[in-house]
Amino acid sequence: LYTIHVIHSGTFDKTPAIITRRYTDFERLHSRLRRRHGDEMDGVYFPRKKLRKNFVAETIAKRSRAFEQYLSHLHSLPELRSTPTFLEFFYLGDLRAGQMLMRVGRYQDALGSLLNALRLQEKLGCHQLLQLNQLQRVHWFFTLSALVTCFQELEQLSEAQEHCDRALQDLAPSQEALQQHQLHPLLIPLLQSNVRLSWKISKDKRRWEALLQEIQEQGIDIGNQPNLKECLIKESIEDSEGLGKAKSKSEDVP
């Protein structure tokens, strides 16, 4: 079992994200990437298994270093690091585990998986929205919204409001998008959650109240919307669609 510390390179990173994977997990990653992205995988070296002395300390140390170089090489290739196969290897398991635990009301247990998924996405650059594809955006906003729900259920209101605010900073629509009703499906539930949370912790909520008012003035029914938890519980993380699509014509979120 290999323990992988994912860090920001070029600086001392005090908060690495950690995952554990077996040789077979690496092998599966490589096989799928070769099958689906053969051209981009030319020249990517994969550490092979030895038939003998497989568990000798020297062999394990060499293979660990080789796997580190292998993952760094994959991440250096823009065409590969944003593929569902690559993302699956790193954080999708944590997202699915977090959602499953939320569905049965185990919010404290879900936090561990979701926070690690958040850290992994940050280390992999998945918080830089302008550089993300549609699938990565789905995962990013699902993670932040799920953390809002868990912290809220656990009465950790400041943490819930902080993650809610972080999501809304990126989801707030332009005036043009607002007039064309091009709103992300999570926008209204997050706005309503943020207003309630801000009121409870005595934080300024005027910006988000004003945006809710603007949305209502555009003829959108903000009272007949599923709440944040309902949106997340029914979402299929395996599906690259779902929360990634706006309810109207456009899939692009300003």
From TrEMBL:
Domain PX: 1-97
Organism: Cirrhinus mrigala (Mrigala)
Molecular-function GO terms, alphabetical: lipid binding
SMART domains xrefs: PX (SM00312)
Lineage of source species: Eukaryota, Metazoa, Chordata, Craniata, Vertebrata
Domain of life: Eukaryota
InterPro entries the record matches: PX_dom, PX_dom_sf, SNX20/SNX21, TPR-like_helical_dom_sf
Principal cellular location given in the protein's record: membrane
GO biological process: protein transport
Pfam families, per the entry: PX
Compartments, as annotated in UniProt: Early endosome membrane
Gene Ontology, cellular component aspect: early endosome membrane
Membrane topology: Peripheral membrane protein
Protein name: PX domain-containing protein
Gene3D superfamilies listed in its UniProt record: Phox-like domain (3.30.1520.10), Tetratricopeptide repeat domain (1.25.40.10)
